[in-house]
């Protein structure tokens, strides 16, 4: 499992703190905030990986095209 990014961890702490302020002792509020933050973290990770894969596939395509065009 990948390590959490520092920004994601800060967001998690912020949402956990806000849930404690508005719903201290209310387990449903705390659980929903933690669940929501987990979903956001997974979505950000997924989008980041998709962007990386798209960049890598474009890079490979460009390299192959350039190598074909430069052959004499």
Can you tell me about this structure?
This protein is mainly alpha-helical. It has one domain. 86% of the residues lie in helices and 0% in strands. It has two helices and no strands. Helix 1 packs antiparallel against helix 2. The longest helix has 44 residues. It is rod-shaped and about 70 Å long.
Summed up:
By secondary structure, the protein is mostly helical.
Distance between the termini: 47 Å
Arithmetic mean of pLDDT? 79
- Count of extended strands: 0
Please report the number of helical segments. 2
Structural class comes to mainly alpha
Q: Domain count, please report it.
A: 1
Biggest sheet: strands, sense, closure? none
Please report which band the strand proportion falls in: under 5%, 5-15%, 15-25%, 25-35%, 35-45% or over 45%: under 5%
